[in-house]
Specification:
The protein is α/β, with parallel strands linked by helices and about 160 residues long. The protein has 5 helices and 5 strands. It has a 5-stranded parallel beta sheet with strand order 3-2-1-4-5, with helices on both faces.
């Protein structure tokens, strides 16, 4: 069974709001009964998130992980605390976090809702569009590492 971590803010609900994202709700409904689904929140405590989930009738997840903040490093620290299962997929709304997760060996699925198709529309927009390039650069770096990997080769070069 697949173990999945879904970041709540930006995937399941709008950041800075209690409004649910339709695509996130659909992902939750599809994943909760078929995977070991963890929810990761950096904005709410576990009890606050449990209350919001109950109000929205979202059940079936395995657990809740809280991150101490929204930065990529804080997100990684929270992911590393999951000890019960090997996490095979992280559903991530932040390209910068996804790039760091990939660099650290996590498989990340970037969730980019259409309302954020234009980076300037994001509530946390800072004026530059570097995260997407960082993500593509990291993916290329990982591919180059994989191509140079020689541990699995059976014939000496």
């Amino acid at each position: 069974m697949l173990t999945v971590v879904m970041v709540v803010e930006g995937v399941l609900r709008l950041p800075q709001s209690e409004a649910m994202l339709v695509t996130g709700k659909g992902l939750f409904a599809a994943l909760a009964p078929t995977t070991r689904l963890y929810l990761l929140s950096y904005a709410w405590t576990e009890s606050e998130l449990q209350s919001w989930l109950a109000r929205n009738q979202l059940t079936g997840h395995l657990g809740i992980i809280t991150a101490s903040g929204p930065t990529p490093q804080q997100r990684l620290d929270a992911l590393r605390r999951i000890r019960s299962w090997r996490v095979e997929l992280v559903i991530e709304p932040d390209p910068q976090c996804a790039a760091l997760e990939i660099a650290e060996g996590w498989t990340a699925l970037l969730h980019a809702p259409a309302l954020y198709a234009e980076p300037a529309w994001r509530p946390d927009h800072t004026g530059h569009i570097r995260p997407w390039q960082a993500l593509t650069d990291e993916m290329q770096h990982q591919e180059n590492l994989r191509l140079r990997e020689n541990r699995a080769r059976t014939t000496p070069e």
